């Protein structure tokens, strides 16, 4: 029974008022608390390692969560494939800049 109370205290220290681990800051806060508990020998190194691994997994899923949340915004983007070709200026002399070679070089006009 005492062990259950100790685990509840550890959970309160690790999680605090965080309800969901949806940001790197929340996960970082929990990892900092985990480090403090391990430094005070309140948690075994093995358990700390498992929890740190779980935190790593949480961090790695953040980009996927972000992509899901912003999928609606990405759907509103419009890809235009049929755009007009740039106008090439005619020159009186021979030029090494043909439309084929010019297309592979960046265009800078001021």
What topology does this entry show?
Layout: H1 2-15, H2 24-39, H3 45-69, H4 71-75, H5 99-103
Helix pairs in contact: 1-2, 2-3
Describe this structure in words.
It is a single chain. The chain is an all-alpha fold. The chain has a domain at 2-65. 59% of the residues lie in helices and 0% in strands. It is built from five helices and no strands. It has helices spanning 2-15, 24-39, 45-69, 71-75, 99-103. Helix 1 packs across helix 2 and helix 2 (24-39) packs antiparallel against helix 3 (45-69). The longest helix is centred in the middle third of the chain and has 25 residues, at 45-69. The protein is elongated. 3% of the residues are buried. The model has no long low-confidence stretch (mean pLDDT 77).
Task: Give short descriptive properties of this protein.
elongated, 110 residues, mainly alpha
